[in-house]
Structures are given as C-alpha cells and as structure tokens.
Amino acid sequence: MLVSVDDVISSAIDAASHDLRKLSLAIHDDPELAMKEVHACRVLTEYLSTKGFAVEHNVAGLETAFVATYESPVGADGLHIGFCSEYDALPGVGHACGHNLIAISGVAMFLAIAAVFDKCRIPGTVKLFGTPAEEAIGGKIFMQEAGVFDGSDLLMMLHPTPGYSGSWHSQACLTMVVEYFGKASHAAMAPWDGINAGTAANIALLTMGAMREQLKPDWRTHGIITKGGEAANVIPDYSRIEYTVRTGWADDLGILEKRAMNVFAAAALATGCTHKVTKEFAYLDNQDNPGGSTDFGNLSQSFISLHGNFDLAGTGVPNHTVEFTRDARTEKAHENALFAAKTSARVAARCLVDGEFWERVTKAHQMRMSAESAEEFYAKFTP
Fold first, then answer.
1. Which top-level group of life is the source organism from (predicted)?
2. Which one, 56, 89, 91, 220, has least CB within 10 Å?
3. To 5 degrees, how large is the angle CA 57–CA 61–CA 63?
C-alpha cells in the first residue's frame, strides 16, 4: 500500500498533540532560567524515554542538555536530520519568548520524521537536540564546540513570533561584561581622594548612546549598569556593565566591537579608572539555506539549516513581554506551533525522498560557504 509522507507526518503529530500540550504547559508554568532548566529537561527526556527513544543526558558537560536519537529500522545509511528544542525562560517575565513552544515543536518534528522512517522504510537517522541557555550563554555554542552536532546533514528549529516566516536572518551579537576599578572615598569630606568607577560606567553608557547616531540601520547597542555603588556618600570603587552589540551580519560584528571597546577605554581614561572587558558569548547571524527551505545562528554557519518563525497567537504582541508570556500558554499558540511543526517536518521529509531537491539544497549551501561574504550571497536571492 502506498504511504503518503504528508499523512504520516500529520498523523504522528496529531496523535501526540495532547501529550505535547501537557509538556508545553508543564514547562511554561515552571519557568527556569538558563542552565537551571532541570524540570523542563526532565519532563522532556522522560517523555521521549517512555516512547522508546534512546536519550543521552548531560551532553557536552551541560546538566540540562540532552540528545534523543532514532535510527531507521532499515538502517542509518541516509540523511542525518536534527531538530533543536529550547526551554529556558527569561528573568522576571518567564516564557516571554515562547520556549515552551519551541520545546514541543522540536519534539513534534522529531516524532514525525521517526514515523516517516518507520512507515516509509527510508534509511537515515533523526535526532532531537535539547539545547539549554539560549537566552543567556548560548548552550548550542558549547554543544557545537564539543562536536555534538557533527555528522548532521540538516538542522532545523522553529520559533514563535508576531507573524510567520519560512526563514529568518537573525542579527549577530556579542555580549560583554565591562568592569571599572577606581578608589573609594567619602563623597563630601574628601571627594578629591576618590576615583569614581560609577562615573566611568555612566560615561560609557552615555557615549555608547551618542554613538548610535553613526551606526548602520541594522546595528544595535544596549546595556545596563548592574553595579554602580553602594551609598550616595561614598565614591564607588567598582562598577559593572552588561553590554550587547548587534549587527546584521557577522562580518560587521568586529567593527562595532572595536568601536565599543574604544568607548569603554575612553571612559576609564576620562575618570582615571582601570577597566576590564570580558566577552561573554557571541551569537552569529542565522544563515537559512535559500535552496531548501540564535545561538542557532552559530550552527547555521557550518550546517545546512532552517530556522522558521510561526505566529504566536494572532495578537501581534512582541517577544519578551508579559503579554507574550500570557499568549504562549494559549490553545491557539499550541495549534500554531504544531501547524508549523508539520510544515517544517514536510521540508525535512522532502530532503529525504526528493533527491533533486536535496541536490539543490546542498548546492546552495556550498555556494554560501564559498561566497566572500554572507551579505553578498543573500543579495543574489533577494528580489
């Protein structure tokens, strides 16, 4: 009997819908910050284990990272497809980026392709990568450096936003911690004896703000002072800034980084402080493959990839807001997540069954890898 790949995908995801809804709410209603997603990791891995999938825990030395694997019953001599799930929350606003939905959309696509292997007797391997700390330190970066994604032919994930997009070019970003070291003194009795680290931090932020006038339209800079002093009558001897710079393309990130470094150094010079800059992490721009188709951007620099966006709930609220958190647990958001999972799983399945299509995908990837810059390459595909 002829088996329809599309029907297999829809049936597999529909059959899991109730379970996936329970997983989504369990993660949403117990938000955990980066590297602390113990509950989310547990409910996801327990579910996958009960379904008979092999699950590797503590991947790349990260307690809340995992990999679930399924090999086709007719052998692994085919494409190796991977999906990513995220599940960390944001401070203060919980799942305001909908990572509970990203988690279940990854599971849904994984289940769908596993079913395609079973029902359609196609060789290959599918993996679900449980990737922690996207909002903070970039768990995928640590996993990539440890070789967790090696051997993948195609990597995919989905993300809720205020609208749909079949592909997504993200910004590249670099986050830094800037510390200023001065000398404490009484602010009234002997201010001349002090070196004000708090003033250095203020100068740095004000100067970065003034610099925005000369930035390219797709560049962004933003930061906060996390420590600026302890008492109004004491000149602070220490201050700390968390700062992020973003550019449309990874090629520009070093340029903006250098300008920021000059600003931070100038603030130290102006106040007599010393300073230290620690680079926390760099997210490269996402390179979706135009032939087929976050920290995921780092993966996309090396692997054929697709990062699709789906509409959260039709309300138009932006990510990282309390309204987005509210909508991320609605039935509508669940329906949209599974609709997107079915659509993306069909793209992955087409790579499995349509050799000509896969050849176009790989050719586009090779062209991008050999291009002088990603920006030039993408310009070829822009009307």
1. Eukaryota
2. 91
3. 55
What is 172-282's CATH number, 3.30.70.360, 3.30.70.20, 3.40.50.720, 2.40.50.140? 3.30.70.360
Residues lower than pLDDT 50 in the chain: 1, 288-290, 292-293, 377-378, 380-383
101: nearest Cα among 295, 346, 294, 340: 340
Answer for the pair 55, 123: CB distance below 8 angstroms, yes or no.
no
Place of tokens 């958190």: 325
The pLDDT of residue 249 is: 74
**Rounded Cα–Cα distance for residues 185 and 172 (Å):** 41
Nearest-angstrom CA–CA distance, 87 and 64: 10
Sign of dihedral through CA atoms 53, 57, 62, 63? positive
- List every span in the chain annotated with CATH 3.30.70.360: 172-282
In 3D space, the residue among 93, 168, 7, 108 whose CA is nearest the CA of residue 334 turns out to be 108
138 Rama class: left (phi>0) / alpha (psi -120 to 50) / beta:
left
Check residue 378 and give its pLDDT: 47
Measured CA to CA in angstroms, residue 222 lies from 44, 61, 173, 256, 257 at distances of 34, 31, 11, 12, 13
- Structural element, H or E, at residue 140: helix 139-145
Residue 287 corresponds to which tokens in the numbers above?
């390179």
Note the pLDDT tens digit of each residue in 311-340: 999 999 999 999 999 999 999 999 999 999
Tell me what pLDDT residue 197 has.
Answer: 97
The number of angstroms, rounded, from the C-alpha of 64 to the middle of its chain's C-alpha atoms is 15
Angle formed by the axes of helices 5-28 and 38-50, to 10°? 140
In this structure, the strands spanning 66-71 and 124-130 are: antiparallel
Classify domain 5-170+286-379 by CATH architecture.
Answer: 3-Layer(aba) Sandwich (3.40)
The CA–CA distances, whole Å, from 318 to 29, 174, 265 equal: 20, 22, 35
Structure confidence at residue 9 (pLDDT): 97
Terminal CA-CA length for the chain: 43
